[in-house]
Give the backbone structure.
Amino acid sequence: MSKRFYSNKVFTTLEHKLAKLDSIKHDKDLLTKGSYFTRKQKKLNFKEDMKILMSIGSSSMKKELFGYFNYDIDTVSLPGFIKSRAKIKQEAFIELMRMMNKAYPCNKTYKGYRLLAVDGSDLPISTDKNDYDTYENQGGIGSGYCTIHLNALYDILNHRYLDGVIQGRRSENEKLAMWTMAERYEGDKAIFIADRGYETFNNFEHLKRTGHKFLIRVKDINSGTTLLKSFRLLPKQGEFDKDVNIIFTNKQTKQILSHPEKYKPIMTNQTFDFLDKDHHFYEADYRVVRIRIESSDEEYESIITNLDRDEFSINDIKELYKLRWDIEVSYRHLKYSVDLNALHSKRRDFIRQEIWARMIMFNISMIIIDYIQDKKLDKNKRKLEYKVNISMAIYFIKQYMVKRKDGDPPDLENLIASQILPVRFDRHYVRNVKAQGCVSFGYRFN
């Protein structure tokens, strides 16, 4: 492929970053044993192992290896690859994702802020009753199941994964994962956006300590378990945009209990990291916004944020929360277009390798897709607006990761630009959520 193509520059950058990573793998402690990859190998090495894991799809590992090496008669054996990949820690993939994101900065912002969505998604994995952290058997009936929970930090406007926290089913804690990623984030000023499930005062205060903004949906004012019950002076109906002040305390004196509109006692079974035996009071300010859902006259959503009202109106709040949905779309492509749902091992360390590898593959694909969307699509007037078919684009890009005896196929960018779909705004469907089982290895027998 000609060097004039943007996609070729992306692949070249990937090669350079892999080479850089290869040169520092011992210094950065990226291998399970320091003596690994010290001898020159023909077929498999640190770089090739990482590229293979990024490019694999849903076929059996043996078929994926033959495909990657272009059906070479001397393709590496499956046991050989397993032995080779076991030498690499998941930290190598984390470092590669960071290096690629730095090489292609996320420049699109909203009023100067990067929009960072946080959400989690379950990944069913092979069942192992001895794996306490991932195994669950509700009610003690049946064989039970194992699940890994992926928490991701996703740049909405730039369509890029920036960070992740992988947890077992039993150790799952989305709130902890959110502010852990927020504290690790070192980019420009940002707004952290999340749906229900992240609404705790402890989470809010940890996010505020990072110096960034947040916008989190909470249960509505009429819910019996909403956080908004702590703010006694809020209206009980209609839309509103109110500033609230509250004092958290671990004391329960008569004076405190007689002023519920001012104080919020923290019980011993609740987590709030900013009170202890020496600090009994903690004051906090929030902005509470209640907005009506456009398709209904009686349904409302409530949001707690620390965004300044002079800079962000109610309409801006609506727009920001609506944009959060893009992380849900990204998970769909990560699982089905990049094939994260089809893991190739039962080993937990290998599973973590593949999760990070697929996130890198998604990022590389979106760097190319966004460029083609902005620069290559025909802008002539049409009845509908069109966008790149992301599933097909990722398929084409993954094919370019494999080794080819006759060079790369021609014109990747125009191939992607030819596969487009109409954009149909404000189309709504009922979201059918159902449990997903682990993709069995049985259907991938060789």
